[in-house]
Amino acid sequence: MINIARRLLIGKPLHNKEMMHERLPKWKALSIFSSDALSSVAYGPEQALLVLVAAQGIIAYGYLSPIIIAVSILLIIVALSYVQVSRANPGGGGAYAVAKKNIGEFPALVAAGAVFADYVLTAAVSVAAGTAAIVSAFPSLVGKEVGIDLGILFFILMLVNLRGMRESSNMFVYPTYAFLLGMVALILTGMYQAVTQDGALLPAASLERQPLNMAMLYIVLRAFANGCSSMTGVEAIADSVPLFKKPEAKNAIITTYWMAGILVVMLSGVTFMMMHFHVIPILEVTALSQLAEHVFGRSFVYYYIQVTTMIVLYLAANTAYNGLPVLLSIVARDGYLPRYLSSRGERLTFSNGIIVITVSAAALIVIFGGHLDHLIALYAIGVFISFTIAQCSMVVHWKREKGSGWLIRAAVNGIGAVATGLVVIIITLTKFSHGAWAVLVFIPVMVFVFKKIRSHYDDMAEQLHLPLEENVQYDDTLVVRNYVIVPISSPTRVVYESLKFAKTLSKDIIVLHIAKDEESAAKVQMKWEQWNPGMDLEIIQSPYRLTIQPLLDYVEALKKRKNPQDYITVVIPEFETRKWWHRLLHNQTGWLLHAMLVIKENVSVTTIPYHLNK
User: Fold this and answer.
1) Its principal location (predicted)?
2) Phi, psi (deg, nearest 5) at residue 483
């Protein structure tokens, strides 16, 4: 059964030679690492519009186009800046790696915490947006969003990624291009209808703007902050440069250019159509669904666009699955996260990182009920913090290197740092009370956790260090005893096998029974004498019918009586059932006892399993 489950989950193991064939060409990498950014056109402009169209009839519709233009300009600046990151840091790791190398540990850890938050939100937001797309086309699914989201996370994204990059890339590449085909058809057909229809390209209602007073400025800036959700995922390419085919950095740079160019075109086209058709947000219906229905009606093309949008949004979460486990592995190798996050599984994927992002995203979806608007409130601030740190790090890098054209490159990154830094301030001010505070609290907490983990590993390394320079001699004349304690509930075949093993360890064997009452103690004593194994049985009365605590107290008392150089070994008899569900029919005293004893100092614990045949 275990082997069948393993094959379903991860398939056949891969070897290091096979890993060489897992490098991605540009056309495939574009679909995998850019699906997050490209699919954001399905919710980015709409989220900006939601803020502009206020609940009390305040209309600021005309500010939508300047906001999307500003987002597009910012996208170009950030893309050019991340091209520099890919060029200077071909080993991957994005903002964390360049910050650690150029400006120090603390900014690097802040970047790592920010990117961690962003990637988890990317997975949650993308899955929630995909579900919103399909619910718009099939209203009968309303109310089932959380269940759909969790099913996609655990049974599609997690399982496919655990099977390895080859399977995930083959599964995810074609739907992305199918989505792009649908968007091209939508934009070209919509623009043709706009040009050929009578009247203005943009109706007067879509150009209305209230005066830009302080209240309106706040609304516009908050709409801009929501629109910046279209830029998340830009850093994924720079985080995953090692996964590209050689030359890795050059291919990553070309992919970044293509991603930015396609996204700017789609943002412009969708925004134009939203303003031309004067789309107003409707509950349970996405703006993209409204546009597709305006242009194509409820035809096959409409459902094609909705289904491909749903799929690509689900796959956009895979950008996080490709980026975050790689980042976690790099941070773990530096000692700021558990070491096992740096290890690859049998399919050469970072399996533990994949599980971490799945569970984290699922928790967010459950907490916020799968509502996209609530998740968007947390979105973007983390990624723009990492953007800013990365660009500042690159300025230091180019100034230090001073190679050919370093001034121009430093200027590009400097402009990027200023622009993204301003966006961090805008998002903080406008979205703080709407949920951004949670991310701003989460990042310092993560930095604290990173530091504590690194401190633990440093302390452990210092204590485990073997001083080779010292000539350590063992005293062969020293007499050391090993007290072996064998706790039993009743004489059985399991106890017989455990005692055989205990005799190989020491002559000082203590067979111990914890009696819950005098009657049970007498029965066990009688069975022991009938068996007569040639050693005494020590019985401890437990007045409160406890089993584990009296044994722990006995071990502590023995530690105080024995010489400091002597050892204590606890041999735990335990039987193993043939079928896994049989374990549910028995208590787990042996497992609990092992867990409690193994943390005690100067006490060794050994479990002797006896395997049942039926």
Assistant:
1) membrane
2) -85, 115
The rounded distance, in Å, linking the Cα atoms of 229 and 47 is 8
Instruction: Give pTM, 2 decimals.
Output: 0.73
C-alpha dihedral, 265 to 266 to 268 to 269, nearest 10°: 110
Average pLDDT over residues 210-229: 85
Q: Would you say residue 162 has pLDDT above 70?
A: yes
DSSP one-letter code for 53:
B
**Residues 427, 176: Cα–Cα separation, whole Å:** 30
Q: How many CB atoms lie within 10 A of CB 101?
A: 17
Instruction: Provide the phi-psi class of 597: left if phi over 0, else alpha when psi is between -120 and 50, else beta.
Output: alpha
- pLDDT level of residue 326 (50, 70, 90 thresholds): confident
- Return the beta strands (E) in 403-503 as ranges: 482-488
Structure tokens at 281: 């947000």
Please, what CATH class does the domain formed by 482-611 belong to? Answer: alpha beta
> Can you give the pLDDT at residue 213?
82
Supply the pLDDT for residue 406.
87
Intervals of CATH 1.20.1740.10 along the chain: 24-455
- Map 554-598 to HEC letters: HHHHHHHHCCCCCEEEEEEEEEECCCHHHHHHCCCHHHHHHHHHC
CATH of 24-455, picked from 1.20.1740.10, 3.60.15.10, 3.30.420.270, 3.30.428.10, is 1.20.1740.10
